[in-house]
Amino acid sequence: MTPLHIAAMHNRVDVVKLLLQRKDTDPNCEDAKGKTPLMTATIRNYVGIFRLLLEDSRTVHDRSDRHGMTPLMHASWKGYLEILHSINLNTSNPNLQERLRMTALHLAASESVAGAVGLLLSRDDIGPNSQDYKGNTPLHRANKSGDKRVIELLFDRGDVDPNRYNRHEMTPLYMASKRARFCRWSITSLSQR
């Protein structure tokens, strides 16, 4: 673990700023778990540290850890909207997949983080029908969580396919009809699209 990792872990903006002024500081160095200081700041929601690292031209924004998770994925999954907004604007590929082939949009939909789903869907290059290792799309995942706002956001995008099959040959509509905890709205909304 480097001094930059330690400073990022302890939210020491002053130390991070000082370390980033040094030419021999590598902002992309990894700790034992494959996490960079930018990931550490993202996971801990340390906005000040995150911004300093993001502004450093040497920082790679799309670097993934040992689980294939990028800072964009971590921020989407946790619902850290301030960080997500910044990284969303600076990430070149929002469709990168972690080791289970989930994208940032899958993670946000799975956790019912409507704000994150909305930010991600604002990008023209987001893949709203990408499939994870089980063939589930973000809409499949949103149906599992049952969050009406997330389902509406996905449908409002206009290019989400409610009839896409997963590996178990289930569509989001079928999944909604089989789960007792789903409200009538979910099933009606999906069947009308």
From TrEMBL:
* Coiled-coil region list: none
UniProt keywords (A-Z) are: ANK repeat, Repeat
Gene3D superfamilies with a match to the protein in the record: Ankyrin repeat-containing domain
Is Repeat one of the keywords? yes
Instruction: Give a yes or no for keyword DNA damage in this entry.
Output: no
ANK repeats span: 1-22, 33-65, 134-158
- Please report the name of this protein according to its UniProt entry: Ankyrin repeat-containing domain protein
Taxonomic lineage from the root: Eukaryota, Fungi, Dikarya, Ascomycota, Saccharomycotina
